[in-house]
Each structure stands twice: as C-alpha cells, then as structure tokens.
Amino acid sequence: MTVDIYETFSWFIEIHARIGSASFYYAVFIALWALWRLYRKEGIDNNYWLALVIAEVILLVQGALGVFLYFYGGVKLAREIHVLYGGLSALALPVAYLFSRGKKERRDLIIYGASLLLVILLTIRSLQTAGALLVFE
After folding, report:
1. Alpha-carbon distance 39 to 22, whole Å?
2. What confidence tier does 2 reach under pLDDT thresholds 50, 70, 90?
3. Rounded CA gap, 90 and 116, in Å?
C-alpha cells in the first residue's frame, strides 16, 4: 500500500496556499492604509505598528509552513525560485524597519509603503511560481 504524499499533507498544502493569498490581501490593505495616512499627513501610530507586526508574523508563518512541507512533507517545488520570492518578502519589512531606524515620521510611512508594495509584488510572483492563483473564496 503506497501513501500519496500530497494526500497526507493536503491540509498543510491548502493552509500554505490560503496563507499565501491572505498575506497578499493583508499587504494590500495596510499599503492602502499607508496611503490614507499619507493623505491625512499622519505618521505611524501604534495601530499601524501592530498591523506591520501582524504582516511580518503572517509572512514568517507562511515561510515556516513552506519549510515544513519541503523538508518533512516531501513536497517538491514547482520552481526553486519560489523560495527566493518567499524569503525576500519576509525580509522586506525588517529591512524597512532597519532603514527607518524605527522612527514614526511621515517619511518612514513612505518607506513602509514601498516595502509593502515589494511584498505585494513578491507574493504575486511567489504564487505564480508555485502554480497557484489568488484564492477569492
């Protein structure tokens, strides 16, 4: 009796795909929030910091689940560059934090908005290289 690896880990594969879509939508939401705050001539407040932290946690959970599926689930990548896109998207917000030095000025909101745009583009590319589409359900 053989066990299909994709059947065994189908829940994890589905969760990985759903978190990938969720990270895209969440990044779009907080990028639009950054534009709204720029329009209102505001800087970064504690609520926005929390949103950025949540975005980073989502990206890290997504990456950890991907690593689990690759090493323990035996799931093979459609294309290896998928790992690069995922890793860069997880690094975008911490690099923006280092670049802004944790300040809360309006200028720093532009830095985070640009990094979120990068996360959005990398997430789209990551989903494409995985052979997946954005989930609208």
Report:
1. 26
2. very low
3. 11
pTM metric for this prediction: 0.80
Phi (first) and psi of residue 14, to 5 degrees: -65, -40
Architecture of domain 5-129: Up-down Bundle (1.20)
Q: 57-85, pLDDT tens digit by residue?
A: 999 998 888 888 777 766 677 677 787 88
Burial 39-59 (b: 16+ CB within 10 A, else e): eeeeebeeebeebbeebbebb
Rounded Cα–Cα distance for residues 30 and 133 (Å):
21
- Domain ranges, ordered by start, for the chain: 5-129
Tell me how far apart the alpha carbons of residues 78 and 38 are, in angstroms, rounded to a whole number. 39
* CA-closest candidate to residue 126, choices 32, 6, 19, 5: 19
